[in-house]
What does this fold into?
Amino acid sequence: MLLMEATDLYLTVGRQPSLRIGQKIELIDQPPLTGDDLESILGQLLTSRQRREYDTNNELNISLDLSHLGRFRANFFRQKMQPGIVIRRIVSKIPSFDQLRLPALLQKLALLPRGLILVTGMTGSGKSTTLASMVDYRNKHASGHVITIEDPVEYYHEHHQSIITQREVGIDTESYEVALKNTLRQRPDVILIGEIRDSTVMNQVLFASETGHLCFSTLHASNAYQSLERILGLFDDEQSKQVRQSLAMNLRAIICQRLLPSLKGDMVVATEILINEGHIRDLIMEGEFHKIRDVIEQNTVSGMHSFQQCLLDLVRQNLISEEIAIQNADVPGDMKLKIQQLKMGTRGQKAASTIAALDTSKLTLTE
It folds into this structure.
């Protein structure tokens, strides 16, 4: 797995072990796995407590620290009444914003004194890595106490200017809810919650941001305004107005991202960034989330941008293909039109440059 630079290892009964390398699944040259093979692996990887939890819930997420190989995130499950395992490699060194090609605006957001910052996207879009980079930047540039609550802990942070406390659900604490209840007694400046999964945790996160803490967390959503809809969907109609008011007052930014295959063969991050200020705050208060994309695209001075704008910029920089941009656009037809306009503009610029380079000193005019 490490030698082939694979990101994921798939272990399932009746199939050869498989690796994800880039966007492709490659089979390992071994016999198909049996149920006994998977049970043997479970016995080697799980503690007795973890095995009991897996047998009870048929699901388990843990981090694996294999000193001679590195760190991994493992998901154990059952399918067709048989065990299944997916193991993801965790790069030990936390990448910088530059290495991830993330907007410089994230540096400013990471140093905010209070409020809520959400990193959203679909599974496998790099949310945890972006959060780790933001915490790392904060750790190296500001003094304070940073508490992370994760399930599982993916990146280990060293102490730099800040004290870093990392707690893993199921090992260091019973749940997100229990950990958050006690976190405010530990005098934190920054709180990272691995994922918001229910209204209880969402309320706790909003309360923490209201009381002067900078909170980071993640949600599964495909763009900024759907992130807001996802939050409201956690609550009933009677609570909706209060939640919108709290979001309008305490949300600082939503960074939504997607991982796309680049023309170089690796992956590149496409982002949509919402900054909660001005008209955006009013729209959140009123629940008019469907109008947010247009406001984002009209207010790029503050660093906001939509996926459409980011995708077009990645095409302009020759980082992704036109096809990938169109496939991943929220409005594919609009993206196709913008790419055509971009190509026409590029041809016009080339023609102007060619004309400007002509030596016209020897030209004569005739009637």
Summary: The chain has two domains: 8-90, 97-305.
